[in-house]
Design goal:
Radius of gyration: 23 Å
Strand order of the largest sheet: 1-2
Largest sheet: 2 strands, antiparallel
Shape: globular
Number of strands: 2
Number of helices: 14
């Protein structure tokens, strides 16, 4: 069938009557929607982890002023990781069935509550409650926003990861800068209350409404411009693909994810074993830096490496993430031997290794979730992203169980 130039193609609706399809939106609008979504996920990643990093640093400061004991410092680590671990364990079992908007609201409220609790804390218990709220906010946010990427072009995964990487660097720098400028930890925390507000604004006003789609091609995803979440049907969006999966299907999908989950668990196990168990023991006396300054440099270089590699997906994509796991485990073994024998002659070699450690960790995170988005089907993608979230938290938890006793053991030997 043919027609004259400029005529519009006609379609038959379900009742057999002729309908005319809506014209495609202008290219500029399509690109604008894509950029809004990418920037929205970058801000969500930044805000989700920024609040957590800043609040945890402040909690340690306030606990030190309250003369917290070593056991109470260990309690901070438990309050920091256990709520996130529980949330991520529940995610594939049913948490993903809840609508997105209430989850985002709870995450933002918990982040703000953690700031307020710790800012006005006069007891160790109150400070620990603030840490718990921050952990709930971060864990719930990560599960929610990574699941949400299933409804957007796959480019948003890279932007989310970059935002989370930037949070570690910018969060630590901003807290350090404001306290060094003379603000008390309490006033610094209260000045950060805009971060949870920015998280909510990014979700409700910046993102366009999500739709199930194949994230394998940004070009196809750009063919439909969606409206802002606020005031739209998407404000009450409920995941519909993973809610239809049976328990058998979920178990089958989870087993298929193990080739991604196990390497990421190993990466984070080795990474946080180094950070929690070895950083304080990698001390050089033949340098002008004090012990505390060396530790801060280790943390800063690690966060810089994470930020760079979590932002590197467009430049470098890695399919076989188990290679990163092996390299990170080698890092752990190498630094453990150095703590035991002290054979490295210069702190600058440690600086390079720790920067490299951060690069490996960030690359493992962003490539794992990018590979899951590529290799899972449309109906499984949302569930798969939520289920794989457990990887980093499980690795951190396992490392904490072993790193802290080993740290104490090595301290007694030295």
């Amino acid at each position: 069938m043919g027609g004259c130039a400029g005529s519009r193609r006609r379609l038959l609706d379900s009742e057999g009557e002729e309908t005319t399809p809506e014209p495609l939106p202008p290219l500029l609008d399509r690109r604008g929607a894509l950029w809004r979504n990418m920037m929205g996920f970058w801000l969500l990643g930044l805000c989700n982890n920024f609040s957590y990093v800043v609040m945890l640093s402040a909690a340690h400061d306030i606990l030190s002023h309250q003369r917290a004991s070593g056991n109470q410092s260990h309690a901070v680590l438990l309050a920091d990781i256990l709520p996130t671990l529980v949330i991520k364990l529940l995610a594939p079992l049913g948490l993903h069935l809840l609508p997105y908007s209430p989850r985002v609201l709870v995450s933002g409220i918990c982040a703000a509550g953690s700031f307020i609790l710790v800012a006005f804390s006069h007891s160790v218990g109150t400070s620990l409650c603030g840490v718990v709220l921050a952990s709930i906010s971060s864990g719930l946010g990560e599960v929610t926003f990574l699941s949400l990427t299933a409804f957007y072009p796959r480019a948003v995964i890279s932007w989310w990861s970059s935002g989370t990487g930037g949070a570690g660097l910018l969060g630590a720098l901003s807290y350090l800068g404001l306290t060094q400028a003379g603000l008390s930890p309490q006033h610094t925390l209260l000045s950060m209350l805009g971060i949870p507000a920015l998280l909510l604004a990014s979700y409700f006003f910046l993102l366009t409404s999500p739709e199930p789609q194949d994230p394998g091609g940004e070009e196809e995803a750009e063919t439909s411009v969606r409206q802002p979440l606020i005031g739209s049907e998407a404000a009450e969006l409920k995941p519909d693909s993973s809610s239809r999966l049976s328990l058998q299907e979920r178990w089958t999908v989870f087993k298929g994810l193990l080739r991604y989950i196990v390497p990421l668990v190993l990466v984070y196990f080795a990474e946080y074993f180094i950070n929690q168990g070895l950083f304080e023991l990698l001390f050089f006396r033949n340098t002008s830096l004090s012990h505390a300054q060396q530790y801060r440099w280790y943390q800063m270089l690690y966060q810089a490496g994470v930020f760079v590699s979590r932002s590197s997906l467009r430049c470098c994509r890695i399919r076989f993430t188990w290679v990163l796991a092996l390299l990170q485990c080698f890092n752990l073994a190498f630094l453990l031997v150095d703590v035991w024998l002290s054979f490295l002659p210069s702190i600058y070699l440690i600086f390079l290794i720790i920067l490299y450690e951060g690069l490996l960790g960030g690359a493992a995170y962003v490539n794992t979730f990018h590979n899951i988005a590529l290799e899972t089907s449309d109906e499984h993608r949302e569930f798969a992203m939520a289920a794989a979230c457990i990887s980093d938290t499980l690795g951190i938890s396992l490392s904490g169980l072993l790193a802290l006793p080993l740290h104490d053991f090595l301290c007694h030997l030295s």
